[in-house]
Every structure is written in structure tokens, then in C-alpha cells.
Queue: 3 jobs
Job 1
Amino acid sequence: MTTITFILCDGEHRSVDAMDGTSIMDAAYKNDIPGIVAECGGSCACATCHVYVEERFFDQFSTADQFEDDMLEGVASERRPNSRLSCQLTITPDVEGIEIEVPAVQQ
């Protein structure tokens, strides 16, 4: 298990223990983290699981492919250099303690 802290748009911090090998979107959804809508269920088809990845952990994840990059062009909240779709981020022990910021708007 790996601990992930979600920072909600109101500044609240919620830490969850997530199973390694699953996605950050799955961890958010299973732990009722508000703001992660995940309409497509993790198939990288909707961009409603957009998050901001803590920069010191950003390189621990594989680079966004062209499809994810295209999806990020249509996010409802500001796209930043550390924007990713949480369905594409696999949890590993290397990201223990990561903070994931949830945007104010997903749709």
C-alpha cells in the first residue's frame, strides 16, 4: 500500500492508502475523493479525472502519450505543466507520500 494525499479545491487534505498497481483515479474513486468524476471509468476518454501531480514526483510516472495529451487539451480547469489524467498514473511504492491536487472543476 502507498499513501497518497489528495488536496481538494477548498484546501482540505485527505490521505488514503492505495493498492500498488492501481491508478490514482481508482484510489480517489474508491475513497470518495470529491472532484474526481471519472465518467469513462479509466479508459482515458473523458478527462474528468484531471489532477495536478506534485512536481517532485512527476518523473516517477511514464510520460503522457499523445492520446492523453490530446485529452488534456480539453480539461475544464487550467492545464498546467504538471497536469495529468489520474487514470493514467499507476501507483508504485516510489510515489509514497505524493500529494495530488484536485482541480476545482472537471466538467
Job 2
Amino acid sequence: MNACGIIGLGRMGAAAAAHLVEQGHRVVVSDLAQDQVAALAAKGATPTASIKELVRLLPQPRVVWLMLPAGEAVESVCFAAGQLFDCLAAGDIVIDGGNSFYRDAVRRAARFAEKDVSYLDCGSSGGLEGARSGLCLMLGGERSAFEESEWLFKALSSPAGDYAYIGPSGSGHFVKMVHNAIEYGMLQAIGEGFELLEEGPYDVNMAQVTALWNKGSVIRSWLMELLHDALVKDPGLAGIGGVVGGGSTGSWAIEEAWRAGVPFATIAASYAARLQTRQSEAFSGKVVAALRNEFGGHPIVPAKK
């Protein structure tokens, strides 16, 4: 039986842990929220009260998957006193499955290498549905560590094997950063198109249009399917505020693009439009917010009264 630890039981982490348990793998879980730990224990995972306990319960060489918010949460779990860096041993593998900045992944990999612990950066896409049934995974780091923990990527991806070794440290998160930047542009284009349908001269049934466009049109897609689902539930998206949230991957990608001399005009404009939604509400913002809720469970700001 394969075994791994999962630290971080938010929406994605909890779904991934449950998916692994269902496949018969041993999953040792940890989270600051003990109710989340208890919920996974009820499904068959092994609960722990600390990272030190999680490490102790895993067989060597250990594989530990992090599904945490980028930044301080990952840094603390990795390097704060008594956390992973202090507890792991040579040959162990840490995998960051969140949306960390790729330059942070390079730095962390170098630090863990001081103890002969491997650190893989893993871009994870597919939203909640993917976490439950199969993620798309982009791996960076030492190839030997990738190969040793490949069973986990096979288990977390779809039966078709939607995972790939990209290259050295940082490359997995770099590719995921670009993926998310492309997502910004695609979501904004859909949002603006449906805003024109909303404001145009015809009383268009937008749920009907999304269903139609997914029957062979050039722009058929999973995003269009998700928008159809959102419009069936709320035809005018009246209950959804037009404020669009998001992490830092868009701004990171824009900065990296400009550093590399890539104009990134469409994606930069999409990022600016997302920021604009926090100042004034538009129907395009409702569409993007609805889509992000459908694929990632991202919270919706209620519509303004």
C-alpha cells in the first residue's frame, strides 16, 4: 500500500485526500482546523494533531503533499521551528501542490537539498471536480524524486494520466502561473461577450446560447459548460456580485512577461479589468465570478442591492 501525508485540508486538499483514500492508499492528514482532520478521518484517512506526528506515522522514504495558500503558510510549514525541515530525513520528498511563486520553489528546493530532502513544485489544475476525479499536474524538480513519487501523480490525475514532468525546480509552478494567466484572458473574454448579450437589443436566453455553443462551435469548452450550469441555476446571475477575486498568479505572470519582453497585452488588460470590478459592478464581472465559483468553489460576493 502506498502512503503519503497531506498538509492543508481546504477545498482542494480535502477533495484530493478523499480521492486517494477511495483508491485504497494510506493518507495521513494534518490541518490547523481539527474539524477538517476529523472529517477526513471519518472517510478513512489517518488523523494527526501536528506535523511532527504526521512525519512520524509515514513510512520512509516519506512523501508529503502540501495544499496550502501561497506565501507565508507554505514557508511556515516548511521551515518554522519543529516543522518539516526539522522533522524530515534524507530521501524524503515534499511536494507543493499549491499556487506558489516559482522563484520561491527554487529557493525552497535548494534549502531542503541541504538535508538531502527533495522538493517538487506541482502546478495543479482542474478545480474541485479535478480534485475529486482527476487533476492536471505539472511537475518541476529532481526527476528522480518525480519518478519515486509518480504513483501519487497517477493516483491524483485522471485515468488518462494527466500529469507531466516539466523540468528542474520552479518549472512546474512557472507553467501553472502561465496557465492561470491564460485563464484570466479566457474568463474575461467570455464575460465581456455575455455582457454584450445582456445589454444588446435582443432578449437572449443565455443558458440556451451556452448549450448551443457547446454543440460543435469553435468556442465550445468546459468553461462554457460551467457557465451554462451557473445560468440554469440563476438565469440573470442576479444573486452574484460582479466583484472578481483571485490570487497573485496573474500579477506574477505579467511581471515575468514584461521582464522577458513579452507584451502580454490581452492578459494584462484582463487583470486590470478584474481589479476594476472591485470599484464598479458590471455583468462581465458576474460572469467571471460565476465561472470561478463553478470550477474552483471560489467565494461569491453578494450582488449589490
Job 3
Amino acid sequence: MFKTRVTEMLGIKYPIICGGMNMLSRAELVAAVSNAGGLGLLASANFETAEQLRQEIRKTKSLTDKPFGCNINMFPSVRPIPNREFIEVICEEGVKAVETSGQRSPEEYVPHLKEGKVIIIHKAATLRHALKGQESGADMIAIVGTENGGATGPEDVSTLVLLPILADAAKVPVIAGGGFADGRGLVAALALGAEGIVMGTRFVATKECPAHPKFKEWMLKSTERDTVVIMRSLQNTHRVLRSKAVEDIQKLEARGARLEELLPLISGAAYRRVFLDGELDAGMNSVGEAVGLVSDVPTVKELIDRIVSQAEAIIGQRLPPMAGLSRR
């Protein structure tokens, strides 16, 4: 029922992708997503060196014989990220796909990835960046709206609007991100022209995700009203859960603080303390509005099976009577 160009090209059962999440997208989560019929993505920026990434790729291979991919982070970073070396390893290890994400085109990496027969998914938060990714040679485009957790782009346009516009303009398959957490979202995305969805926030609240239990508990207590966009002053907008640290970031930005003043709260070290150590007020985090749809912490397989079953029920049971009424 859910055969699309995305599933066919990636060799996966369901058009469901777990986005590459800093600190969290490691072998156990990635393999669980792929084993359940989706596509898991390792976050290469989790690693200091290409050899560390190679070891995580091999660990993932030991946990699944299904396709998986890697994210290449092209956002601004305090520490240098060896993306070229990462891509060398990805090609050498025969990884199925790469998700490039950031505010610039993946053009510089495309020839090497194509030579390595790696499928390129370029993820963007604006139409112009998405289409630039297609122009640069991406095989698929993922578009994320302002609902998205983490990077949202500067334009504050929702996925509901971005998706059909891009689907009309794109020549390659489109994947939708931002606000997706269940079967209703999957059906809606397909109806709007997507051929798959990418989720992050919903996968954080799963048993295989290495996020600290305190963080998962925080998510269960949160609603769709509990997120806010920060870092506009740095032109690097991110949607996060409200916290004492996030309030401090907002105050610093309001008075025109420089990057050096913000770093203790937005750095990778602070991010790690929040997600992995459960120090919820240590710094920023990345959570989307879909947190309002999170009410439990299932296994990845339970979550994906539930999404697919709900989507099948909507298509097979709920929509046909409505379509019949419309023909009267």
C-alpha cells in the first residue's frame, strides 16, 4: 500500500525515515528503525573522526542487514566537522544513503557520493534551498517547516504549505518533515504530494533512543504549546522545548548578546548534558511541535507498526465512505 519512489529507491518497506539527530542517532536507534521497515540515519557529527564514524557504521551493520544512511551536517559549527572524510568512509563502507542538511547546497559533495552510488537526500527548510539541492544533483528532497524540531529555517512557513508547493515544482521525490508523529500525518503527507516522511521528535521518545529517561519523561509532560524558536540573532533558528536555559538564551538574544555569550548554553557540550545526562536546564535542546502528539515511549517497531496500521485504517476505512458521499 505504501510503495513510493522513496521506498523503491532506498529499498525499504515503509516510507518512514528517522532524521539524523545530534547525540541520539547512533547504531542502536538507527538499526531499530531500519529493522522495523524504515530508514535510520546515523548522525556523522556525533563523531570527531572519520574512523569513529566507520566503527559506528560497522556496528550498525552488525545490528541490521537492512538499508540505513548517514546525515552530513552542513550547519555552522564551533568545531570543524570533517565532512569530506566522513563521505570517504560512507562510500567505502557502502552506506545506502546520505542526508545532507544545512543552509547551503550539497553541491561540493555530490560528485563523490554519486561515484560511490550513494543516494542523496537533501533536507532544507525553505523552497529555494530545497530546489537548489535538486539542481545540485540530490536524488530526493526533504522539506521541513517551522513545526520542525531543531533547525527551522528563517521564514516561519509550515510544512502544510511548503510541501504541496515543492511537490508541484520538484522533479525528484519529496519527503515531508515537521509535525509528523503518527499514521494520520503519514496519510496527510502522501495526500499533499510527499512520497515519505522524516521524523525526529517522535523517535526520541522510543526505547531504543539513547536520550535520558528524564528527557523522555519531560516530553511526555509537554504539549504543542511548550516549544519556542531561538537563535534568530545568529540566523540559525532552532525550535526547542521551553526551559530555564532556553529562557536565559531568549534574554541574552533580546539584549543583543554575542555568540561568545551564548555558547555555554548552545554548545554541543551543553546539548549533551541535556539529552544524555538528563540535566534539563543545562542548555538548549531540539524538539518539534509534534511533542504534543507524544504520549508514550514504545519500541521503534511498535511505533512504526502503529503508524502503518493507523494509516492503512484511514485509507481503507475512513476515507472511502467520505469519497462515496462526495460523488452523490
